[in-house]
C-alpha cells in the first residue's frame, strides 16, 4: 500500500475531490500553506493499493492545472536592499506536487 500526498491549489480542490469519489478512491483534505508564497493550498492524503497508484496520479494530473501567480515584494526593513525587487514577480505554481510514500501498516478501528 502507498500513501499519496498531493499539494495542489485550492481552486482545483473540489474538482479533484469529485474525481476521486467518482473513481471510488478515499481521500482526506488538509488545509495547508505554501512556504514560499505563504498562501493557502490544499494537501490531499490518499491511501491506495500499489496497483492503483498510477490511476490516482493520472486523476491528479488531469484535474490540477498549473497557473501563474503574482508574488508581492516584501520591503527589506533595515536589510540589504541590493536584491530588493520593487515590483510583483510572476511564479508558476504547479498543478500538483506529489509524494508517494510506502505504508508499513494500515488499520481502521
Ligand atoms: P509554495 O511554497 O508557496 O510555492 C509556490 C511556487 O513558488 C512554487 O510552485 C514554485 O514555482 C515557486 N517557488 C517555491 N519556492 C521558490 C524559491 N525558493 N524560489 C523561487 N520560486 C519558488 P510549486 O513548485 O508548484 O509548489 C507548489 C506548492 O507545493 C508549494 O507552495 C508548497 O506548498 C508545495 N511544495 C512544493 N515543493 C515542495 C517540497 N519539496 N516539499 C514540500 N512541499 C512542497
UniProtKB/TrEMBL annotation:
InterPro entries tied to this protein:
CdAMP_rec, N-reg_PII-like_a/b, N-reg_PII/ATP_PRibTrfase_C
Query: Sorted alphabetically, which Pfam families does this protein's record hold?
Result: CdAMP_rec
Q: Which Gene3D superfamilies match?
A: 3.30.70.120
Signal sequence, renumbered to the chain: none
Q: This chain belongs to which protein, by name?
A: Nitrogen regulatory protein P-II
